[in-house]
Design brief:
Elements (H helix, E strand, L loop, with lengths): L15 H19 L3 E4 L3 E5 L2 H15 L4 H13 L6 E8 L4 H10 L7 E4 L5 E3 L1 E2 L12 E7 L11 E4 L6 E4 L2 H13 L3
Antiparallel strand pairs: 1-2, 2-3, 3-7, 4-5, 4-8, 6-7, 8-9
Length: 195
């Protein structure tokens, strides 16, 4: 199978017992990598951008939790998690819709149906790149509180990346500039898709 350069390979995954021995240091490293890839937009939306290291960490954690040893199951986990990264020239992320009050959750997820088509990244020239998503992850009557998105950025100059994240959905319209650290992290992740 010919994987994009930023996807996790089977050879980069260790068995769950070996992983358990190094889990503390792996977890610390993963949390440090995740920090600049977490972007809060307004009161309800959090974008968690993924890269090779964060996906590798998630696969290892899943293998440990489920005690996965069967080769076909490991390959299935890799395939599933690698999809979150997108392809060449794409950034992938999980969008968390965080509604604290249980009583508000269902009504807002119904009201916000279609939100995922209104999420975008802003490039340095001011242009917007809207999220792509799998329609199968959207119900007929309401959103899921977790959405998996990709942004196609193959038009970005080498070394470039997004400078802001935004939403133009009614009631949730907002835009936030990325910090220098966030811009650098996402530009590096984008560059890694094309190596």
């Amino acid at each position: 199978m010919n994987l994009p350069p930023h996807h996790v390979r089977r050879s980069q995954i260790v068995d769950f017992e070996t992983y358990a021995d190094q889990r503390d240091s792996e977890r610390q490293a993963a949390m440090a990598i995740k920090a600049p890839r977490r972007v809060h937009l307004g009161d309800y939306l959090t974008f968690l951008f993924e890269n090779h290291a964060t996906i590798r960490y998630q696969v290892q954690e899943m293998m440990r939790a489920e005690k996965i040893v069967r080769e076909s199951s490991i390959e299935e986990e890799l395939s599933t998690y690698n999809e979150l990264l997108g392809g060449v020239g794409q950034l992938g992320c999980a969008l968390l819709i965080e509604i604290a009050a249980e009583v508000d959750r269902k009504p807002l997820l119904i009201k916000w149906l279609g939100l995922q088509a209104h999420l975008y990244l802003v490039l340095s020239d001011g242009s917007r790149v809207y999220a792509e998503f799998d329609p199968a992850q959207v119900g007929d009557d309401r959103l899921s509180a977790v959405q998996y998105l990709t942004f196609s950025l193959d038009q970005v100059e080498p070394g470039g990346g997004p400078v802001a994240v935004g939403c133009d959905f009614p009631d949730l319209t907002d835009e936030i500039a990325l910090t220098a650290e966030q811009q650098s992290a996402l530009a590096a992740d984008l560059a890694a898709t094309q190596v």
